[in-house]
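We emphasize that the prediction below concerns an isolated chain of 107 residues; any contacts that depend on oligomerization or on bound cofactors are therefore not represented. The input was used exactly as deposited, without trimming of termini.
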Amino acid sequence: MVRYYRLDDRNVPQLLRGEIEYYRWLASLDKSRRTVVHVIVAQEEVGKVFIGTYFLGCDYYCKVAGHLWQTMVYHGEDKLMTVSYDCHADAIMGHRSFVEKFCNPCR
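Result of the prediction step, given as a token string:
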């Protein structure tokens, strides 16, 4: 069974009744804060690498229970890697570490 979540004011996931409630909440967010299906935590281009970190909103996408955030790293159309997190703070730190890694590849 897929469970859907929204974020409260402290970026803590709150369980919702279902998919419709999730998409209503998502639609209420400013368009600059969301994609069609996820909440944008951070997105950056570093050279030819795109790094995007998102709140997924449901556990359907999660390989590990509770990992509702994900960073995806792309080079053009090719996905280089995906890392999941279980809290907002870890997602932010993970995103920053990828940006630093690709900004300073020789470190």
